Protein: glycine oxidase
Amino acid sequence: MKKVYDVIIAGGGIIGCSIAYQQAKLGKQVLILEKRELCSEASSAAAGMLGAQAEIDENLSMLKLALKSRAMFPDIIQELEDLTGISIGLVNEGMIKIAWDDVEAEVLKKQVRFHKEWDGQVRWMAQAEICEREPHLSRGLAGGMLIPNDGQLIAPNLARAFAVGAMARGAVVLEGTEIEDFIFDKESVEGVMTSKGSFYGETVIAAAGAWTGKLLKKADLELPIFPVKGECLSVIPEGPLIRSTIFSDSGGYLVPKKDGRLIIGATSYENEFNPSVSFGGVRMLAERAYKLLPQLASARWEKAWAGIRPQTGDGLPYIGWHPAYKGLFIAAGHYRNGILLSPITGKMVSDSIEGTAAAEDKELYREFEIERGLKKVQEGWIR
Structure:
């Protein structure tokens, strides 16, 4: 007799593992299928910024979702650390989004006025105040936006904690298992065929990051999810140089970790699946970082790496049911916000499967559904 799981999750990154954790908490029988190793792609490459307000200021739905997710972190981190013993390294020293000149300063001041409506602690900082708070930063700044509640953490540890937490609650994980096709029953998906055999589930969730678009073509769906490679590097200063995360629209970011490392990021190359690190990318990141923080000249080199992030045509993740096949759910396209949105995505998917979303949440969730601008491939489901 074939075993039928409650939920099969295609993808063992932070999104898939967050979903698995939430479903396993409900006592569901969960199977995670990962073609490589758990948390080995974008989840392991992220700098771990929780930039709900630093990077999101145009789409209100995305901002609302990001703020809801940011608010979940203190409780979910405590829960995961207690359950798994994994230190997630949450740092609540805020983020400073800096301006290099008067033009950038005016743009940021408008953002301050906008974001204060959502978080009254957001405020403008003059150059002198920034230098007082962060004395090692360049004196060439024109000011910045202080976002006290945009924290940061150790992204690979969070992803691993979701995975270990899910397994502690009974989830099964199969690594090195590639999905070859879906198993269909008329207009329903009832399982997957993989390199290690067939598996059956009441619900199948496609959460394979930048590879989700390719996977969904097997279910007659063409989603505009494409890869964006990002390179980062890390150094170890002789001592702490900054307390807050420093972010610049024109010059990357600096993220100081609890263990003394400083992560510097990130480049951006669209439609690039090659995970190799380029000399030009490292040089650009190093030059930007040195301009912001001159004392990095004496820091010890640690390493450089790249991750493949899943972006979408309109910049919003796809979180919702397949428009044609019952039993197939999609959660992908989080781009640079996968770490930030991991708690709320797990909740959204569980709410959708269980039918437990509050009315106000349902309204927000609709903004991320699959139907927006799509058509079915066989009958013209195209963007």
Q: What stands out?
A: The radius of gyration is 21 Å. The first helix runs from residue 14 to 25. The domain at 4-50+156-226+314-379 is CATH 3.50.50.60 (FAD/NAD(P)-binding domain).
